[in-house]
Amino acid sequence: MTKLKTLIEAARPRTLPLSVSGIIVGSAIAFAEGFFNPYILILSLITTIGLQILSNFANDYGDGVKGTDNADRVGPIRALQSGIISAKEMLSAMIVTTIFTLIVAITLIYISFGSEQILFSLLFFVLGLFAVAAAIKYTVGNSAYGYHGYGDLFVFIFFGLVSVIGSYFLYTKKLEWDVILPAISVGLLSVGVLNLNNMRDFQSDAKSNKNTMVVKLGITKAKRYHSLILTVALIAAMLFLLLNYQQWTNTIFIISFIPIILHLKRVRSIRQEQLLDPELKKLSLSTFLFAVLFLLSYNNFL
Fold it and tell me: How far apart are CA 170 and CA 168, in angstroms?
């Protein structure tokens, strides 16, 4: 396998639909209120994809240099683990991705706020720096928060609250309290994907002292936790529907609940951690489906 192909795989393309789900949902609410700017949409999507790729590179690098990605790991072989990409090369890829993402983010901020709303620009620039730091510090360094069970919290904040509410604000320059409900939905569905990943890697993480939420809880409680967060995600979306219902098309996104509920049933019945791997893609795509149908539910595209 070539270095380029290995690096593309290290970017983990299958995680990218999940990463843009919050942007789609936040944009959907803004569009429904009459706010639309194609440049904000495109740049928001590129920024989010850049941050996700950076996070994936950093995860590969951090787990690789710590030895967490080893023969005991259930998932696919990572770039550093394979030996095709060196630690120095992955670090270079992280630096390039960071620079590119920050340039796009600064352009996005300028287009949204111009030179007049300097306080908003500074706020979002700082948020961007925090997002970059969070992407890197998940597994990189001695104080990597992913090794202490805080990954779930950071995923909820950045994939849910920041992604949905932040993108909504970029269009509208205002905050509405009910926007937090779909932000909770996307955030918790994203936490569910991370929780699946950690349940799959439970054995190898425990041996490597990577104390994820699953390692702390144990598999049985982690499955209960999984059911809880996904159930709350669906309830939050339904509450938003009840508060904003205007016509039957607003209910279209409920279709996405079907694969999520079926996923929950499968997870409860799985007894071997390695069999959880296919569920990662299913839940990630179900979250993306939720976002797309949410967009259709509140905008007159049909």
Answer: 6
